Amino acid sequence: MSVGHASTPFTQTEGFKGLRLISPTLFYCVLLMAVPLATVVIYSFMTDGDQGVTGPFTFDNYIKVWTGKVYQTIMARSLMVSMLVTLATVLLAYPIAYYVSFHVPAHRKALWLFLITIPFWTSYVVRVFLWKVILGYNGVINSGLMSLGIIDEPLQAINYNIGALVMTLAHAYAPFAILPIFVVLEKIDRSLLEAGQDLGESKIVTFLRVTLPLSVPGIIAAVLIVFIPTIGDYVTPDLIGGGKLPMIANMIEVQMLKQNNRALGSAIAVSAMLIVALVSIAFVMWNRRYLKGGAR
Amino acid sequence: MKSPGLRIYAIAYLIFLYAPIILLPIFAFNDNKIIAFPLSGFTTEWFSEMWNDTALWRAFTNSMIISTSVATLSTLLGLFAARATTRFQFPAKAPIMGLVMLPLVLPEMILAMSLIVVLLAIGVDLSIKTIILGHVLICTPFAVAILTSAFQSLDRSLEEAAYDLGEGTVSTFMRIILPLVLPGIISSFLITFTISLDEFIIAYFLGGSDVVLSAYIFGQFRFPAKVPAMLALGTCLVLISITLLAIAEYFRRRGIAKVGGKDAGGFL
Fold first, then answer.
1. Whether the complex's predicted ipTM surpasses the cut of 0.95
2. Is residue A196 part of a domain?
3. Count of domains in chain A?
4. Scanning A185, B6, B21, B210, which has its CA 20 to 30 A from the CA of A262?
5. What b-and-e string marks burial along B133-143, b requiring 16 or more CB atoms within 10 Å of the CB?
6. What is the pLDDT of residues B112-135, one digit of tens each?
7. A136: helix, strand or coil
8. Residues contacting residue B45 through CB under 8 Å, at least 6 positions apart
9. What is the pLDDT of residues B39-68, one digit of tens each?
10. DSSP of A188-251, one letter per residue?
11. A262 located within any domain
């Protein structure tokens, strides 16, 4: 681990100074994140009984989680909701990021980004509840349309279903998708686009062959930063789904706190993280040719 | 290059983003317990109901204690990490920074549950203090991100000039570096304060019997009669958040202007 010259004592090297400076933050993260996460992984291979969580090493929790009908249904639903949310959020976000990067004058860009991020910073619980109010059976959309005389019966297609869940989450994660795509679009050399058009390609072809491939790293970042946290969302299934559409987070809560089976709850948590990690890695591998600089 | 289609889409998207926030004050001032159209008339009843709610004030006090402590601690931890990563090369830099930034992408539910498991196992009672522990974890990456960009735009030669003129490490930091990154520190403090104030999952599960604002609101939503007062509270919270963010944005931009850098955009 010797960094720098052999003659300088280790405590004077740059490497030591850097490590010393970052050690409080690192220590905090290890103690309050790495250790608890490791504990959950260990618990998931143990048994929760009257004496608390005890050994010996067992796969029982995982067998239960991976073969149980209830668990499979909820895992599949969580995965589907997260994928739909990611798809909706990124598809809706891309044109906005493109618009702000290519069509908004430079001095107004910061204002647009500020406008886009503000809703994200307002109370999450209140926002989710408001979507329930907007989409509900006697909600804002239905009552509004009825008082305008456009519909006679409340629309049922919009309340308390997967669609409502997806819409609420797509709203909650919008800035997370816009910002990484925007950052990548800003870096694209504008002369490449001019070159494409000078060579006789239409705007659409230029977009598909130059802009879109170059912006893939931003899209990948957006997908990951929306997909990974969404699968652990707790509030939206509870408020919007009315408890009828539980997701992984709700199931973890039930096992950990209500059933007091921390071993099984840990196995669900670890399984969820594994699924998320595998899907994320697969997605990155699938797009890796775009990540190594250059579009081809 | 004008494209009206894209512009219309952008405005429609902004309406989608702001729809819930616009409805908030409309129904907070609406004279009806049921949240639906048509509107029934103007009232400030929900705001006075909110104002006289003693349980709410207790939650508010808890939230203020938590957010202030979290903003201070996570900005401090962020300072260490941001300074280390911008100024020094050290072994295992990438994995260490990866670990520090990890809470940004980890589902909060997983963090909350793993913390609870450990805290219960070692016999710590859940309270305001455990919420602070959890919040510092999720706020530190934001502080690191903001402060890293503040430190990055520092000109290293200023620091070296100070050393050459005989200043020590500490006085250089206090007299040269700190004033230049101060806008970043203020911005980091305000952003982490806002995140902690709004955060729900960790506050809900790690609080034990101590209730914070977001958890209080969540609980009250189960009673339809309480909803209008909660919307009034939501309106106030939105105003507080927007004010804090506008101040943070002001300092962030001033920080960039101070060191002559180029504005790279938002907070994230």
1. no
2. yes
3. 1
4. B210
5. bbbbbbbbbbb
6. 999 998 998 888 899 999 999 999
7. coil
8. B31, B228
9. 777 888 888 888 888 889 999 999 999 999
10. S-HHHHHHHHHTT--HHHHIIIIIHHHTHHHHHHHHHHHHHHHTT--HHHHHTSTTSS--HHHH
11. yes
- List, for residues A232-287, the tens digit of each pLDDT value: 888 888 888 777 788 888 989 888 888 888 889 899 999 998 988 899 899 888 88
Residue A183 lies in a domain: yes
What is the average pLDDT across A38-50?
87
- Residue of chain A whose Cα is closest to the Cα of B137: A29
Burial class of A5 by CB neighbour count within 10 A (0 to 12, 13 to 18, 19+): exposed
Q: How many CB atoms lie within 10 A of CB B27?
A: 23
**Residue contact A134–B20, C-beta within 8 A:** yes
> Least CA distance to B91: which residue of chain A?
A15
Picking from B23, B242, B266, the nearest residue to A130 by CB comes out as B23
| Residue from the list B88, B198, B265 with its beta carbon closest to the beta carbon of A14 | B88
Q: Do A117 and B17 make contact, defined as CB atoms within 8 angstroms?
A: no
Q: What is the mean pLDDT of residues A33-37?
A: 93
Under a CB-based contact definition with an 8 Å cutoff, are residues A15 and A231 in contact? no
pLDDT digits (tens, 9 = 90+) for B65-123: 999 999 999 999 999 999 999 888 888 889 999 999 999 888 889 999 999 989 988 88
Cβ-based contacts of A14 with chain B (< 8 Å): 88-90
Contacts of A237 in chain B (CB under 8 A): none
Q: Which domain holds residue A274?
A: 66-291
Size of interface A-B (CB pairs under 8 A): 276
Q: Would you call A34 and B99 a contact, using CB atoms and an 8 Å cutoff?
A: yes
Q: What CATH number does the domain containing A251 carry? A: 1.10.3720.10
Q: Determine, for residues B137 and A29 on separate chains, whether the beta-carbon distance falls below 8 Å.
A: yes
CATH topology for B43-258 is MetI-like fold (1.10.3720)
Residue A20 lies in a domain: no
Domain extents for chain B?
43-258
